[in-house]
Amino acid sequence: MVASNPMYSSGMSLRKKFLATVINDIWPETLFFSAIATMVAAVSMLTDHKLYLNNGLLGVLGTVLGLVISFRTSSAYERYSDGRKMWTNIGTYSRTLAMIIWIHISNDRPAPPNGRAPTQLECIIEKKTMINLVQALSVSIKHYLRGESGVYYQDLYPLVCFLPRYAKGGSTEHDLLPMWHASEDGEFPLEHNPQRGPGSRSNSTNTMTSNYKEEAPSTFFGSVRKHHKTFDPEKVLPVVEVHRPLKPSRSPPRAGFTDYFPFLKIFKLIAKPFRKSPGSQDVDMRAVLGKKRKPKPCDSNVPVEISLFLMNYANVMIRAGNIPAPLAGSLVGAISSIQDTLSNLERIADTPLPFAYQAHLRISIWIYLLALPFQIVSTFGWLTIPGTAFTTFLYLGFLEIGQEIENPFNYDLNDLDLDDFCFMIQRELHEITAHPTPDPSEYVFGPSNQPFAPADRRTAQELIQANEAYTHSDHGPDSRPGSHSIQRTLLKGWKAVDSSTRK
User: Fold this and answer.
1) Is 201 buried (19+), middle (13-18) or exposed (0-12) by CB count in 10 A?
2) Domain coordinates in residue numbering, the chain
3) Minimal CA–CA distance to 136: which of 105, 158, 152?
């Protein structure tokens, strides 16, 4: 799964580049129209019957269909581009939300009525936990857009497992909150009073890691394992106990031998009644005729549930006066903006083009391609066959490209790399919380800071030690100390930078 064009990615194998094309989507139709062209050319060239049609409308209809297909592809790419913009917004809002929580929510809080004041460690733990929920929010959006319901995933469950599961005062399955109720499927009953050790795992199936792998450039049938390395992003997540095996962080449909030669799937279809049902839950990437399988819609909205906890935290901090009033609106606004972005992503994922438009366009192309051999056989002869095949590949290829990229959140090689977006957000949130938020005076007046460069290259420490009333000898004998001299230094710096940075 790549965000850039896989055909020009040096790290992709030839087999992945093949699967990234739409050849498997259009080969049955290309074969069908090529057979029609073969029949027309054979009858016209080998018999006395001439299957000719007037080609007067050929150019006009071809131009019209070309414009309509171009509009179809452009509108689909606009959805693809909008999806990328929305994920950029999620990253931006997540950073903003994390910065406000980490920096502006106080660690020194007064004691509430009839209670004790939280310690600094408790405040930091609280804020880091909420920032982890911000990370969980982006991960849950990824699974939601892919039609993967629930929270039992290796990259999501460790971030949300501490959230309350039952309504206050309840402890049965009837009291489960919506997020957990939608996640339970009855296959692994929820333990109400599990005996769990801290930081332990129940068995090997619950391991919070997955076998992500990055491969060096490979041949069509195999990869070069010389530069192989393992990519394991789940190993940095919390180690927690869970009553059921967790699903992989990503579950792309497997690509088998018949995905490269889809016409062989007919034999699998014939042999299916005689085979035992496999234990694996893997799903073929393509249907019998090569069409990509689409994921089922998701029936639980985990991102909304996580947003409720974040919004509730913002409400508690605002009511307790632990965040400055001007920034309280920014905190709530960042959460609301992520919700607005999620709504736009839902619009892209759940709103296909109207069926009537797609059906009318495909039927028009089919009629045009059916009539094409009859109109060009008198001019091209036997070349009618490759000409029809190429035209079919061209027209239907663009049509399938538009259909594939109109929902760019799945596992197709041309879809957006949602996993990489989530990893980027995860890295940035941890980078934010790695800063201890010191007082600026601890680093501003150090020996490495030259605030007035290039006009005055003395460090801040030297400037303070030299004289409280700022003077600079480069200004000449008429230089006056104090703010006038500082302004002249800043003006000199501006002139130096302005002249040095212009070509």
Assistant:
1) middle
2) 167-250, 441-500
3) 158
